[in-house]
User: What shape does this take?
Amino acid sequence: MFKNKITQALLLGAGVSVAAASFSTMAAQVPAGVKLADKQELVRGNGTEVESLDPQKVSGVPESNVIRDLLEGLVNQDGEGNLVPGVAKSWETEDSKTWLFHLREDAKWSNGDPVTAEDIVYAWQRLADPKTGSPYASYLEMTTMKNAEAVVKGDKPVDSLGVEALDKHTIKVSLEKSVPYFASMLVHTSMKPVNRKVVEKFGDDWTAPKNYVSNGAYKLSNWVVNERIELIRNEQYWDNSNTVINKVTYLPIENQVAEMNRFLAGEVDVTYEMPNEHFKRLLKEYPEDVKVTPYLCSYYYEFNTERKPFDNVNVRKALSYAVDREIIANLVVAKGETPAYNFTPLATNGLEVEMPEYSTLSRQERIAKAKELLNSAGFDESNPLSFKLLYNTSENHKKVAVAIASMWKKNLGVSAELENQEWKSYLDSKRQGNFDVSRAGWCGDYNEASTFLGIMKTGHSQNYPNYSSKAYDKAVDDALNSKSDAQRSLVYKEAESILAKDMPILPIYHYVNARLVNPHLEGYPMKNPEDNIFTKDLYFVSDK
Assistant: This one.
């Protein structure tokens, strides 16, 4: 299990050079003497039907859960979130700008093709290519990969992107700025490889079970839309001998109570989440089954700043001030979440935040200020504000929306019409700007504040509020140019302050991850703050 001090220092920005470092890997760690269950088949609730299984065309957690089992990038994580080798057996850098990755020679695709450096180059160029239309194209810009911004905008060809195959098993990456945590950014779904031959042969149909070629621990065997996705062991996987789970099934269950009941009936081994109103009872009656873990995620609402009246900062602030986050976190969701007055979760590495002034006001003072702000924008009893609040289908999201809409109505006389859409339609509405106010959740792609603050930059592909601020953009850029962790932390503090002043988003709470997990399932990661679960690391034991 990799806990290498040199690479840990790099990730924290210490500027330590690494020379041809190689590390041990992570797999199912079955202790000696443990009796494995005869049946090694895992069933997971996955929240909703996935948008796609193409790593360069997705942006959600449900999709990443499945793709994480199907495709393996250069690096993986262990149960505590530490980097461990994936397709790359080692990597090195002297200045955190030029990186070399050395691929393992025994990595293969499920069709028997070798996994080569060209596969990685092709996938990253495909991510940047405007023709792909990836919702995560801006992620490459956040890495500062050479020419990424120009390629994403279509101003330069994809082959000018700062990644090249030096030979079949060596990749060179050139960044425009020193990014000491670059390797940790490669865990993300969008950076995983695809088989070029298969993608070019089948086009969009390459993700069909009969065509899908994977390089991870599992391969796609069956996909019934809105019913199930089934994966089986990939016998070509380089570490297949250390994989224990033979089959994993993902179920798109959107109703948390239904998912809970299926778990209690023994039909599901790991739930996607838990129904808020049943959490305390489940914790009391099934303490071994309830798992609550840290999670680098923020729950918030987005204002469409290009639509009136949400182009008015006073309207945005009024709605934000009128929300009682303590009630939402402690009474509505109530699983250990913390009220949020800023975007980035406070547990994020290197983050220091000065809480905005309104967070220190009493409930009555906040409401009084909210009324004043709303009145200044021309809304009062004679001209009440009304709009639609969009959320994706989920009982938990609905409960939060009902509670917040009630607060707006009671405190400000504002009417919010709730509009729920299934996952794909919801994403499409946000991408096209077809919303007034929308539920949103963002989970860290790596443990560093830029993974949150970067998406609010002007033009970012995940900036659905269409927020634009030169001062904010400068602060985020200055963080990348910072010479020390302390300096970077100060700039992040400034960026959070600007967000609180402009209020393009309404932070509500910072997540924890609460699930029901079969007590016979071992290897479940209790300390991975990014919630990256790899089925290959899990195993079932016989009755305890």
The radius of gyration is 23 Å. The CA atoms of residues 346 and 352 lie 8 Å apart. The longest helix spans residues 395-412. The longest strand covers residues 290-303.
